[in-house]
Amino acid sequence: MAKEKEKISCKDVENFLQPYLEDRLNNKDCYKLINHLKVCDECMDELEIRYLLHEGLKRLEDGHDFNLKAELEERLYHSEQHILMIDRIKTSLILFAAALIILGLVQLVYVIIGG
């Protein structure tokens, strides 16, 4: 394989990603792709996203236990529980602060009236 680095555009990379993931990219184009990915973070990010999708689909096809919907639902449930807990803590703090204010006012009135 030639050692010269042929430059390719991000648009060219777009056309190489799926064949690369499916092991259909020829060596020359694969070499160009790899060299581009070394200097282009955006294309590397795109490859990572496509790889995760590709592997996720493959795992599903292979029958591996892989339930993204359940994982998302669980994450949403935990997020909701976290928000509810924060709301309960805020409400408790507000009630506690109100009780302290009322107690302070009662003591003030007691001192003023005849304490």
What does this structure look like?
The chain is mostly helical and 115 residues long. It has two domains: 1-66, no CATH class; 67-115. The chain is 81% helix and 0% strand. The chain is elongated, with a radius of gyration of 30 Å. It starts with 9 loop residues before the first helix and ends with a helix. The mean pLDDT is 84.
Give me the number of helical elements.
4
Rg from alpha-carbon coordinates: 30 Å
**What oligomeric assembly is this protein in?**
single chain
Unreliable spans are none
Fraction of residues in H or I helices: over 70%
% residues in beta strands = under 5%
Give the biggest sheet: none
| Structural class designation | mainly alpha
Q: Strand tally, please?
A: 0
Ends distance: 97 Å
Taken from the alpha-carbon principal axes, the silhouette is elongated
The overall pLDDT, averaged over residues, is 84
Give a short synopsis of this structure:
The protein has 115 residues and is mainly α. Helices cover 81% and strands 0% of the residues. It has helices at residues 10-21, 27-39, 41-62, 68-113.
